[in-house]
Amino acid sequence: MIIVMKPDSTAAEIGAVIARVQEIGASPHPIYGAERTVVAVVGETRKFDPVSFRQMPGVERITFISAPFKLASRESHPDDTIIPLNGVRIGSREIVVIAGPCSVESRSQLLETAHAVKEAGAHILRGGAFKPRSSPYSFQGLGLKGLEILAEAREIYGLHIVTEVMNPQAVPMVAEYADILQIGARNMQNYGLLHAVGRVQRPVLLKRGMMSSMEELLMSAEYILAGGNYKVMLCERGIRSFEKYTRNTFDLNAVPVLKQLSHLPVIADPSHATGRWDAVPAMARAAIAAGADGLMIEVHPHPSQALSDGPQSLKPEVFADLMQQLKRVAEAVDRTLTLPKPEPQGVVA
Ligand code: PEP
Ligand code: MN
Hints:
- By secondary structure, this protein is an alpha/beta fold.
- Helix content is about 35%, strand content about 20%.
- The protein has helices spanning about 10-25, 50-55, 105-120, 145-155, 170-175, 190-200, 215-225, 255-260, 270-275, 280-290, 315-330; strands spanning about 1-5, 25-30, 35-45, 60-65, 85, 90, 95-100, 125, 160-165, 180-185, 205, 230-235, 265-270, 295-300.
- The site of manganese (II) ion has 5 residues, from loops.
């Protein structure tokens, strides 16, 4: 249910509606739009009586949300959600680029990558400190040491940090270091983890499960929103199919369809979606053309030596070249990607 307040409703009237929703045992989620406030009512709604709410001062009308993902739905929140992060506005006209290695492997590897992606114009640095690996014998990440290295890179290069959190117990620790918490594809339906990130005020990058539908992705986002954390980004990272020449099948359909169904920013990850570096630039360009709000791209200074996901990692020079192409694609679809000005090459007298 959505209680749509009149454009001139007062804070006291909105407060009374919120209190009344709480009285009947439901959860109110006020959404303060540019023109008006709406109060989404979720949870225990059996005692919700539309007529009595309709009569409250300041209420214009009551509408019903047909989608099962009530708070994630565009029906409840027609405006795009924009997640501000110190100068970066995720979900705005400006495309946001997240780049970095799959795993933090060492201080020198991460700092070298951070330097390169910053120079190329990336806004956010990625790197896994806790890695969900298919084999228990594969590199599992540097753990806390990896988080410390990420924090150092943030200090030096002024990049925001996104890193994966794998279990609810680790959320407070990872949230201490990371600007954005990543929920990996394998954990998209780890409901304990979704509850835990719903309770912290850190933006969340929620990756689509490799065998999950868009609706399941949106329902997982709903868990986080219902917990009170409204800063959620949806990430399309490819789904499993019968195709063998790529690691996953990039569901480009998901980009425009998720944008239509939901107000949450949509980020595309062409690295995991393809599994091969030579396909990443084309799919990155396609994602921006399709309306993605941002990209997540794996970059490694020496992909052949990477401890994880080397075959899909771009070398820094390929990434820098791609950023120039993405700027042009962004502009062609009425978006922007502001790149740093190149260093002056010296003046010839
Ligand atoms: C990753 O981002 O490195 C990762 C493990 O991604 P996914 O959860 O999409 O497989
Ligand atoms: Mn990876």
